[in-house]
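seq:
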Amino acid sequence: MNIDEYILQHSDAEGDYLYRLWRATNVHTIHGRMASGQLQGRLLKMLVRMIRPQNILEVGTFSGYSALCMAEGLEAGGKVWTFEINDEMEEFTRPWIDHSPYADKIVFRIGNANIEAPKLGISFDMVFIDGDKRTYKETYETLLPLVNEGGFIVADNTLWDGHVVDPQYAHDAQTQGIDEFNAYVAADTRVEKVILPIRDGLTLIRKKPTA
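struct:
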């Protein structure tokens, strides 16, 4: 048994519906590994339990796995607003969201979150960024004003398979986007931040209250 198997065996299970979604994502989509999976999914649910957000914004729905995990942790009246820019995913993803036990807690929209989210007129207690890696910095700057003071941004893939420290990927646009984002957030005095070496890297960012 390796350490990853040990961790999963000693963490909460994802449940049958999420497991079937994870399997279907890997069978029927090209980039199935993009789905959060058991460990990250249970962490997202736990973060929601801890933060107790009223509104969550997700950038990058993909197959809906992470949205369902976050919705699972919401208290009554809470909502996940999730945006997917790739309209080709809608046919796969929407039924999984609509037929889930948490359909009433999720608003799934096709569109660019950087453009559409500010139009909602909603402030968020938690934002999960898992969209285009090349525009992470732009997404961060666009959405930070929508986050309530003391609220959190969670950014996925911030270690990018270790490519951020591999010179072979120095000219890769997605690696450059992640590295630029990491450096930008590290220097941003408006927030507190920490990178967790979980899965592909997960950065927790807390917006500081203004004095």
